[in-house]
Amino acid sequence: MPVHPDPSRQPLLADAQQDDSPPTPPSKTFTPTFGAAAAYGILVSIVIGSGVFTSPGAIDTNVPSPAMALVMWLTGGILAWAGANTLAELGTAIQGEGGVQPYLQYIYGDLAGFLAAWTWIIAVMPATIAILSIVFVESIYSALGVTDRADALSHKGLSVLVLVVVSLANSISTRVSTHLSRFFLGTKFTSIILVVVAGLAVVVLQTSQPDRTDIGGRDWFVRNWFAYRDTIHPDGHRTVWQDLGAWEMLGHYSTAIYGALWAYSGWDKAIYISSELKDPSRQLPLTINTAIPTIVLCFFVANAAYYILLPWDVVSTSDSVAVTAISRLLGVRFGILAAVLICLVVAGSILGNSLVVGRMTVAAANKGWFPRLFTVIGRVGLLKHRSPDDAPSSTTFDAPVNAVLLSIVLSALYILFGDFRSLLTFNGLGEYTFFFLTVLGAIILRWREPGLKRPYKPLLIIPVVFALVSGFVIVRGATFAPVQALVLVVLWAIGLVIYWVKMRWFAS
């Protein structure tokens, strides 16, 4: 006989009360209005961000051949698909708003759900938006030939300005945010298509005129894609792969995978809007199993094109490979055009992540984990007590403004006090700690509650593989980035204190 979740433990994030009336039954904050197509667009818009245009150099530096670099991109895509499918299992079995937090709460208890919400709202999502804002400005500077201004106050100020302008678009309404997401989705595909078409053009020209040396990088035509070659780091350091042992090479490969995982960052975001899907049991798996293969294909062909368009030594030393490739092939003006398109891509990712963190903050506030003012929808300020004589509001202004403003403030602080590389590691450690716990929890539930109704149930090997790899990423990241790990531990300690005080306060 099927075993259904105990209602007393089920982590539905109820809508907050707007007055002092007796509690009402749990209800969803956001009306289910999204179809699979809208969810597909949002997921692709979030994942295809700066990573496919900025990570290739970091990945290429840590692999011995272009073919192995493409393997790293495929590996990252498989891991993203495995993690997303596992979360789809949980998302269709355990209903709730707020991403992984209701699943962690259901599996491990209220404290785990709180810490997940706390980490995502205070650390992971603001750091992600900060990274994207920094990349937006760095793309502009790179197109202008300026590559050494990342720490300048003007650079940080422009990054904050980009953050504020794009994030406030989510304070207009959900409908406006959806329309903007569709527009940015178009620019993402346009940017990737531009790179791929340029690569195909070089292939056609080079194969028809084998002796030409003035088109593309030519290395793709005359060198072995699978053979070892030395790689050059941005600081001029050279890695001679024939001299490395197996353990050292494994360390480089793990670093390369970490770069790929950053590019795929956002694969989990479909579950954040699962409560807004009309038929989540059917539409959530459909969204994941169409969007992620699309993303993997885009990343694979784009990176293959980079190796065709550029000399391989340039790929390993560039942090803006797309702009560099188009500039070398078509000139500076087209390079600026490429930078503009990439900026639009990044803006779309900022918009999508801002939309997600706003809804996650509302869900956490509805649960009582954050102040109730973050449950306010459609305006800035505190909760209002509605008079019985007040007419129902007909406004369509439905964005979580207070939650968006909190995200803006935190992201601005990360921009001002951090930098691209440190925030990248900080973000990864925070994310994958809870991805690991969530996927491990899905495995535990298979044993603990075998009768739990699971409309979608992938093979057990899928969550097992993801748990093993993500566990390795966490240990490796904490070992090689102790400062960022310490900051996270401090934030968790603060969260534990707040949770303890809150429980004691309400208990008394």
Automatic annotation (TrEMBL):
Q: Which residues form a coiled coil?
A: none
- Determine if Transmembrane helix is one of this entry's keywords: yes
Annotated region Disordered: the residues are: 1-29
Q: Where in the cell is it found?
A: Membrane
What is the membrane topology noted in the UniProt record heading this document? Multi-pass membrane protein
The record ties this protein, via Pfam families, to: AA_permease_2
Key words, A-Z: Membrane, Transmembrane, Transmembrane helix
Q: Where are the transmembrane segments?
A: 34-54, 66-84, 111-137, 158-177, 183-205, 286-309, 329-351, 399-417, 429-447, 459-477, 483-501
Protein name as it appears in the record:
Amino acid/polyamine transporter I
GO MF: L-amino acid transmembrane transporter activity
